[in-house]
Design brief:
It is a single chain. By secondary structure, the chain is mainly alpha-helical. It is built from 6 helices and no strands. Helix 1 packs antiparallel against helix 2 and helix 2 packs antiparallel against helix 3. The radius of gyration is 23 Å and the shape is elongated.
């Protein structure tokens, strides 16, 4: 029982090996770097056999897609992120993790901007000395 769950979602699974490039070296794919660890974590959380089976099938589907077209998992994940970030639907935008939302609201780091009095900005105030 636990052996099945472990083999379907751990990095040592025969299904989660990184695909080989034409030269024979392992490539890092979104399926192996992101999808597999997230699904493995979900396997550990959910004890329902039907849910575990569906999670394992989802991982196998991502693996299969990567074999057919190596960049497709990346494209799918990027489109999902873009949809969550740009959606006006509160049910969709609420899926954005709080840490990501905080980064989106934060000012860009160390961007000094144009000096005061530059064209298009109000003139600088005289000092009160």
């Amino acid at each position: 029982e636990s052996g099945q769950r472990q083999s379907a979602g751990t990095p040592k699974s025969r299904h989660s090996a990184a695909p080989l490039s034409p030269g024979g070296e392992a490539q890092s794919s979104v399926a192996s770097l992101v999808v597999a660890p997230v699904l493995a974590r979900q396997l550990g959380v959910h004890r329902d056999k039907a849910v575990q089976k569906a999670l394992a099938q989802l991982k196998l589907a991502f693996d299969h897609l990567e074999k057919l077209r190596p960049s497709i998992s990346r494209d799918v994940l990027m489109q999902m992120f873009e949809l969550v970030v740009s959606s006006k639907n509160p049910h969709v935008s609420s899926l954005m993790p709080p840490a990501v939302a905080a980064l989106a609201r934060a000012p860009p780091p160390s961007s000094p901007g144009p000096p005061l009095g530059a064209p298009g900005l109000p003139p600088s105030r005289p000092s009160a000395s």
